[in-house]
Amino acid sequence: MTQAIATEKTPTKPTFSKLVSKDGGIEYEAKALYVCEETFSPLEVAYDYDVIRAQVSRESIEAGPNSIWRYRPFLPVATDNVIDVGTGMTPLVKSQRLARRLGLKNLYIKNDAVNMPTLSFKDRVVSVALSRARELGFTTVSCASTGNLANSTAAIAAHAGLDCCVFIPSDLEAGKVLGTLIYNPTVMAVKGNYDQVNRLCSEVANSYGWGFVNINLRPYYSEGSKTLGFEVAEQLGWKLPDHIVAPIASGSLYTKIYKGFQEFIKVGLVEDKPVRFSGAQAEGCSPVAQAFKAGRDFITPVKPNTIAKSIAIGNPADGMYAVEQAQKTGGTIESATDAEIVEGIKLLAETEGIFTETAGGTTIAVLKKLVEAGKIDPDETTVVYITGNGLKTQEAVQGCIGEPLTIDAKLDSFERAWERAQTLERLDWQPVLV
Amino acid sequence: MTQAIATEKTPTKPTFSKLVSKDGGIEYEAKALYVCEETFSPLEVAYDYDVIRAQVSRESIEAGPNSIWRYRPFLPVATDNVIDVGTGMTPLVKSQRLARRLGLKNLYIKNDAVNMPTLSFKDRVVSVALSRARELGFTTVSCASTGNLANSTAAIAAHAGLDCCVFIPSDLEAGKVLGTLIYNPTVMAVKGNYDQVNRLCSEVANSYGWGFVNINLRPYYSEGSKTLGFEVAEQLGWKLPDHIVAPIASGSLYTKIYKGFQEFIKVGLVEDKPVRFSGAQAEGCSPVAQAFKAGRDFITPVKPNTIAKSIAIGNPADGMYAVEQAQKTGGTIESATDAEIVEGIKLLAETEGIFTETAGGTTIAVLKKLVEAGKIDPDETTVVYITGNGLKTQEAVQGCIGEPLTIDAKLDSFERAWERAQTLERLDWQPVLV
Questions:
Q1: Known Pfam families for this protein (chains A, B) (predicted)?
Q2: Rg of chain B's alpha carbons, rounded to an integer?
Q3: Of A12, A292, A409, A417, which has the maximum CB count within 10 A?
């Protein structure tokens, strides 16, 4: 989905050439590999930051496309032939009404509920993964998904003309299933939770020649989340915030925002400063929050039981990295109950006009808890990450919001209903004493 | 929802000061008025194009915010204190796979399915109407809606802290009702169709001091649709297309895109050239298409009966203006059946990764018909307008798309399902002869 008027691109020197193991620094070719054969540690893309530094400036980025591809030298693609579906550069909203409600003075909302094309931050990671998949010669792409990733993989594969087979847990929200099927991929609904889906996909990835965006393409895929760090820094006027609050599922998003900030410091685009990283989980699937609270150096897997299905990963791959990051930056990892999650969704909608899904409700609920516990300073520049759209998880709020007043198409019918509504509202605010 | 880093704005000379009747040029104060007391013709905003010409250039627009407000001198607001929720500047997609499927060489898709904040073009008109409502001193805003407008009015009112009461037909799609209620406005579900809702609202507008965005604020509101013309011209590199295809409900969107092009010509931002305007209606509510086909100079109202509820206006206010515009520009107004609308939704999703609602399905279905009838030249630069998101009208495609294959979390269960899927697909393409 190239923008109509693309800026002319000149081929530039690649900024990466290999993968390295996260712990031992063992090198691998930049192919569809994701785990070190010797240490079993995950593999990461190794960049040449001198090359990046020579290619980027604030001005060159600002003159780039209005999408994640303005940060292309920081992303693991070798050619200029990327899949640009307009992903990224979502609004960073200076909150007025939510901030006042919470008592914060400098609250910003990074709104990926309106990310393109499928309304979640997953469009970022999938745009990167499928661009790389095409470079590596894959013709069929796949993923293990809690819903948003399946939407995004199916949509962007359709756009790019790649064959697509996605795997989801069979109990997903209707909107997420339909929002995948519409693009006409093969959809495998697996009887089991996400962790079981993920294990099955690892097996399939070993025997089929497919590009699984979050398995054998994971080193490339996960880099896409750095753009949530890059954009916030740029949108704050090339400054880092004081505190961020983001949801934690696998822990990848949370740790890659940090990596994005660090890379901007490394190449001189922003000044170094401390940033506190706080994380949000649903209480019904909070292995990372539990490890953080207990001060443990390991994650105890859990069986998910929450309405926040999109972040319900019981055995999170990057869980310990997330705990360490919260500890070293002075942040907190907190959880919210399902009821609090619904209240979080409603609070954001009523105050800011942003309708988020359960993951966003979790993040807002945790933001509120952190403020109440004095863990966010009212003056801090705080950025809260909203990662998905509420139209996909309508079940979560059904029955928990108001109802329409049904009336006849006549003025007197309206007037009676309006009077009733006003009375109810007054009663809401000033309960009659009995 | 101000963008984090707003460009500093200097107050500029207002570009409008009054309303005039569309037929007789009778002048009115620029207040909440919408119909000429003498001729009953609609009122329009009267601009001083010399003032606009002095304020705008391609460069000044390109340096403006990444939203409809980059065109602020062309919009009817008096101050710089506008409500900017990031609306507009949605992608203009150069189509590859849909274009190939249809046999077109220069097809572009203007994608308002990802407009901010509520995923339809209505965010444009509501951003303008509520900005003006605030200037005129309204504290309660309202609308008569087929769904998208209610979503948008409720969300942007919530953001701006305005009280809100919206009116919808009681049989709307669940996603549109929930996508309004979440922002906590008062919702009146009227037993009747949109035309009845609209009549009731006219009565309410007369006796309550509310700003109805599409009734007493309609002269301001409708101007927001011009931005769909402005953006296409700018995104095509400051050129007009040869042919546009847009949905027709009231006819306002369709005629305002034309007005947008004309204004850009008038102030010298683009060169004058012929643009053909074709329009799309659902067969179950096609009073404008019927008038066009019969060559009538009046609209015969109809009772809507179609799945395309968002464009189901049986007595369209600007219907005759739309017919005249199609006639004078050499375009066509065509309709599509409900089955063709569903196929249109699927076609766009499968080829471009864009999930639109029924209105968009109508437009794609009509685009296909026009190509097949030889009414669009393969070489013409054609822009098709997609105005809303498919997640809001999930009912329309349920049962018409594929289903997930349910499997156990085991490799052999997957393998059996995958083999079955491949066989089915082969059968699909190469039916066995019996």
A1: PALP
A2: 22
A3: A292
